[in-house]
Design a protein that fits this description.
With 157 residues, this protein is of the alpha/beta class. It is 39% helix and 25% strand. The chain has two domains: 3-78, Transcription elongation factor, GreA/GreB, N-terminal domain (Helix Hairpins), CATH 1.10.287.180; 83-156, Roll (Chitinase A, domain 3), CATH 3.10.50.30.
Length: 157
């Protein structure tokens, strides 16, 4: 199955964030970028007009992001995180794990909403894949560049 037909799993929060981003880009950023391009075009010779080329490139990047968001949103399956429960790790679960005596907390999210700095890991990441479907008390092993790392699941919310 090619990527354009693949469903994209996402939490309700992640879905709302992408819808909001698309709305912001279409209603605010795009008109601003078009206006900037029009003003730069008025400055004369386009071949040597750095502002024109910059504005044109920015508008092109913006249009690319809008199309990407539309494609993702057309393929989204919003997962009911209430059904995930507290027994088994699933999309939307908050998982408390322990590795080498250190405790960590991660939220399992769809790949488009992953943010490792915010402790949101994709269900498609190596750790996310290993945790999916597991229960409290189980351990998972994940291959890392430094070797195999064993994680113990302490709590699932």
């Amino acid at each position: 199955m090619n990527q354009q037909n693949q469903r994209v799993q996402m939490t309700p929060l992640g879905y709302r964030q992408l819808v909001d981003e698309l709305d912001q880009l279409e209603k605010n950023k795009r008109p601003e970028a078009i206006d900037r391009l029009a003003k730069a075009r008025e400055d004369g010779d386009l071949s040597e007009n750095a502002e024109y080329h910059s504005a044109k490139d920015d508008l092109s990047a913006l249009e690319g992001r809008i199309e990407e968001l539309k494609d993702i949103l057309a393929r989204v399956v919003v997962v009911d995180v209430q059904k995930a429960g507290q027994e088994m790790v699933g999309l939307g679960s908050v998982v408390h794990i322990e590795v080498n005596g250190t405790k960590h907390e991660f939220t399992i999210v769809g790949e488009w909403e992953a943010d490792p700095a915010a402790k949101k890991i994709s269900h498609e990441s190596p750790l996310g894949k290993a945790l999916m479907g597991k229960k409290v008390g189980e351990t998972v092993e994940v291959e890392a560049p430094s070797g195999v790392i064993t994680y113990a699941i302490k709590l699932v919310k």
